[in-house]
Specification:
The complex is a heterodimer of chains A (about 110) and B (about 120). By secondary structure, chain A is mainly β. Chain A is about 0% helix and about 45% strand. In chain A, the strands form 2 sheets. In chain A, strands 1, 3, 4, 7, 8 and 9 form a 6-stranded mixed beta sheet that branches. Chain A is globular and about 40 Å long. The relative contact order of chain B is 0.31. Classes of the chains: A mainly beta (about 110), B mainly beta (about 120). At the A-B interface, strand 7 and strand 8 of A face strand 5, strand 9 and strand 10 of B.
């Protein structure tokens, strides 16, 4: 199974929105609504911020939102804050009944 | 709230077996699904496998021939074994609880803090 494709880095200014893409195939992202997103600060464990494409776990800010179109899923962060600077990973269920992650995107808040 | 803690040797010799344990507190291991995930230094996340429904497993095909995931219900623990390790297995290993919403159980809602395992002679 190949990793999902994410941009290596994105950046934005405080208060601005940013979007991170996650490109898969018709065997994973395109077929299932089981895309998740994780935020990871340096030296910390990842934190689930979006599951099943659009759903936020309890306690996660509504500044985080997810969507999907075809084989591409997206994470949007609105009203960027300094504390959003972190690495972000997508994952998807696959036709092999396995999970695959994206390579990760480092978000820099300018 | 469920909490997870990984434990095991931080250094393993090449060709030997890596063994880690995840201790679960605040919930029964029988109630949820569980997983192991690893992250090589400076790299992304790699899913290793699931443990579900009293001992069933689903494993990453790229690791399947070397990986075993099992549970110890009386101790409320589950474990990971990776045989014939090489330097490529050096990583921070995380155990995680699968987040379920209805019949969808494909994300990881709670994570341990992670433990670094280095493969070196």
């Amino acid at each position: 199974q190949s990793a999902l494709t994410q941009p290596a880095s994105v950046s934005g200014s405080p208060g601005q929105p940013i979007t991170i893409s996650c490109i898969g195939t018709s065997s994973d992202v395109g077929l299932f609504d089981y895309v998740s997103w994780y935020q990871q600060h340096p030296g910390k464990a990842p934190k689930l911020i979006i599951y099943d494409v659009t759903n936020r776990p309890s306690g996660v800010s509504n500044r985080f939102s997810g969507s999907k179109s075809g084989n591409t899923a997206s994470l949007t962060i609105s009203g960027l804050r300094a504390e959003d600077e972190a690495a972000y990973y997508c994952s998807s269920f696959t036709t092999s009944s396995t999970l695959v992650f994206g390579g990760g995107t480092k978000l820099t808040v300018l | 709230q469920v909490q997870l803690q990984e434990s095991g040797p931080g250094l393993v010799k090449p060709s030997e077996t890596l063994s880690l344990t995840c201790t679960v507190s605040g919930g029964s291991i029988r109630t949820y699904y569980w997983s192991w995930i690893r992250q090589a230094p400076g790299k992304g996340l790699e899913w290793i496998g699931y443990l579900y429904n009293s001992g069933n497993t689903n494993l990453n095909p790229s690791l399947k021939s070397r990986v075993t995931i099992s549970e110890d219900t009386p101790k409320n623990q589950f474990s990971l074994k990776v045989t014939s390790v090489t330097a490529a297995d050096t990583a921070v290993y995380y155990c995680a609880r699968v987040h379920c919403s209805g019949t969808s159980c494909y994300s990881f809602g709670s994570w341990g803090q992670g433990t670094l395992v280095t493969v070196s002679s």
